[in-house]
Amino acid sequence: MIDTLLFLLVDGITNGAVYGLVALSLIVIYTVTRVVNIAQGEYVTLGALSFASALSGYFSPFSWLVAGGLAAFAVLDVADRRLSNSARIRMLLIRSIWIAGVLATAFAANKFPGSYWFAVLAALAATASLGALTYRLTVEPVSGASPIVLLIVSVGVYMVFHGAAVLIWGAEPQSVPPVVDGGVSLGPVFITYQSLWICCFAVLAMAGLYTFSERTLIGQALQATAVNRVGAQLCGIPVRVAGQLSFSIGAGFSALSGLLLAPLITANYDMGFPIGLKGFVAAALGGIVEYPTALVGVALVGLTESFSAFQISAFRDVIVFLMVIPILLWRNAVRPPEAHEH
Amino acid sequence: MTKSAISSSRRSPATASIIVAFAMFALACVVAAIGPQYDVTLLVTVGLTSIAGMGLTLLLIAGQVSLGQAAFMAIGAYVSAILARDFGIPPFIALVLGVAASALSGVIVGAITLRLKGHFLPLATLAIGIATSAAIVAAGGLTGGASGLGQIPPLAIGPLALTEDRGFAVVVWLLVAVLGGGFSRLLYSRAGRAIAALKTDAEMAEIFGVDATRLRLIVFVVAATLAGLSGTLYAYYFKFLSPAPFGLTASINLLIACIFGGMAHPFGAVLGATAITVLEMLLQNTVARMLGLSGNVELIVFGLVLICVLLRWPGGIWSALQRVWPRFSAVRPGRNIELTPSKRSTAGEDLLTVTGISKNFGGLKALQGISFSVGPDQIVGLIGPNGAGKSTTFNIATGLLAPSEGAVLLMGETPPKRVSELVHRGVSRTFQHVRIIPERTVLENVAFGAYAQGRAGMMSGMFGFDRKEEAATFAKAWRALEIVELDGLAHEPASRMAMGQARLVEVARALVSRPRLLLLDEPAAGLRTGEKLKLVTLLHRLKRAGMSVLLVEHDMDLVMNCVDRVVVLDRGQSLMTGLPDEVRQDERVIAAYLGT
């Protein structure tokens, strides 16, 4: 009995750590851009799949697509007539380094097949850049729209990513090796090192994000944008850059959770969406704005999931997804979301 | 007069709707009669998507989004299929029960989730949709689970069985035509205006007597019922059910159909359903087959359609047709009707009495011990510098806020618990930030003010049993527009008005509700000098007609020119109450305004 409980606890915490990274991504994106990102789980998928292909030495068209997209919008941005020449050169320089970074990591992974960390870098660089690209293409043109419109746009983004993942990688699941094989026996329970890695990364990432947003100027600027977009703009904070940055961070974190989780469940095109939604259920507890409350939500979702999987496995997802209703009702009563930003 | 009446009624959107509905039905009959079997199945699919889509469009018009409509389709489909197949209930009765089950789940889900604000509602419906399809798979013993549920009996009423696919298509499109025609007539009726007002601003809708919570629930249940009807018919047509066509993708595709077709009009759902189905066919037959790719191209293309439409073409296909669609118009009445207050107040009775009210927001004392009253045929001005507590006083007087201390009497009684009751007491108001329905004409906006005096519900709105009432409503609306001298703009879209005109339209809308007490919240803000003079004349005229006015205003000159008494607030306290001349010369008032 104790064994089972311990096992479920470890399982729940591991899952919770993965959802935690996704919940953080959702919060970073929502607070800065007011986008409730339905497509968040797809970054998990894309992170895991691009990691799998980079690790096997296969240069996936994903990196080319992202680099191409970055180049296209670099051209668009540099052609903006309102810019001064020096601003243009600076922008061109930054974009070139960025594109070079995405391609360089991809080539490095290609040259050293099997190198774990190059593959991680390649996957993170490409997926995080895709986040920025998504913001640029689908949010910026309608940044003044209501959160509901932004939400529906993100549904469209989800569909494109989901379909594209199958086109690029196929429907076959790909197995991914863990960071370190094996695990430790803690009394009667066996814990894989990968689970420990996941928890470790999750804690590091959360601490990092917390320090970033509380202790650095850029983090403070992001928070200011979160509180009041127009005000932040008037204070000279470039809202567009803040949006791209938040989408990059969000996409990167989700990709990280995807490639860490992949060894436990294999990487496949369908893995991300439910993870994204469960991360959302957790984040909803804090109204998609509060980090600490989201952590409570993460633990709640992870544990509910593993215990209900044990008790009534067929209805596991029904229970986890329906949890969002009481959470939203509670949140709505405590602090309702602003319907519109005037 | 009669000639113009005939020509305008011939070109009204209601008539156009009926013509389009008939044309759709006729076209569907032709396809059903001579098309190949494949086309008949497509026809049924488009029809079923349209039925569910029209419900979702109505929901969108009311300003709500559901990402879980397919759940209601699933409930209707599975309930009727299981009842007819496993319990031997006659198929038609099973159909009715299935639709009823969807409606009931709509009531339950709506009652729980409709209090959610903003983007919380689509997220809750998304979760319900996913949980429903997961539950269908999990409850395999009853529903057949992932492998499906077959051998559903054909739809029949007694001995009359609908086994013929072509006949089925005709029945489906008859429903589409009746519902489509009905809903597009509904848009321009009393209930339709209330639904549109709900999207603009629920609080504003309540001021004119709409029970927003109830109407929102009704619209949600109508959408769920139509989804259920669509699902049940799906079960009887294909005679096989599996969870796949009722999953998240189905809910999203339905939303895409509505947005692509145009979410401003029920026919948009039909257009969208057709466009999406045609697109799907094209993709399946050409791109996918040529490149040897599976259904993922569809997913990508639909996703791109959704993004592009929302980003670049938010009106969808309907916005292109709207240019040739007749604009709403109503005939100007020949005889002059008077817009007098609904009930004359008993002589001497005060309409509004505020006694010693205070309001605390946490530690902040926004108001302390304010007392004043508004008597019959009196214009009272409530003035004070910024932050004096004018708006708080105003909101307490209309029952939007409860005072921390003190009492408010409206027409001698405590204010009603619900804002929507206010208009029945003979109280109406305008808003500091203009709240008019931007999509509708000026005349319709004004006509919405008469909501509380009407009776016609959704059914009479759909099928035209409200003609007499509507004629009376629009006669009043015309009269009110004449009073504020904006009758020339009656058929202009409200979004095109300048600020000053919009404020006067709000006054006209309030007049149509025939109040005894009219509350004006900064009516002169944004008005030009000429318009301000017009407003003063208007206020005197209203007073002569037996109306009392409470006026919150910044413009001292305007207030002093028309009010009988002035209440001056400063920093949450009552500075003085008196005649305009007394106030003008009072040193405390001058000090409060100019600073000491």
What does this structure look like?
The complex is a heterodimer of chains A (342) and B (596). Chain A is mainly α. Chain A has one domain (2-341). Chain A has helices spanning 2-33, 40-55, 61-78, 85-111, 116-139, 147-169, 193-215, 217-227, 229-234, 239-265, 272-284, 291-311, 316-322, 324-334; strands spanning 183-186, 189-192. Chain A is globular. The termini of chain A are far apart. With 596 residues, chain B is an alpha/beta fold. Chain B has two domains: 11-247, no CATH class; 352-594, P-loop containing nucleotide triphosphate hydrolases (Rossmann fold, 3-Layer(aba) Sandwich). Chain B is built from 24 helices and eleven strands. In chain B, the strands form three sheets. Chain B has a six-stranded mixed beta sheet, sandwiched between helices. A three-stranded antiparallel beta sheet of chain B has the order 4-3-6, covered by helices on one side. Chain B has a two-stranded antiparallel sheet with strand order 1-2. In chain B, α4 (69-86) packs antiparallel against α5 (91-113). Chains A and B meet through α6, α11, α13 and α14 of A and α6, α12 and α14 of B.
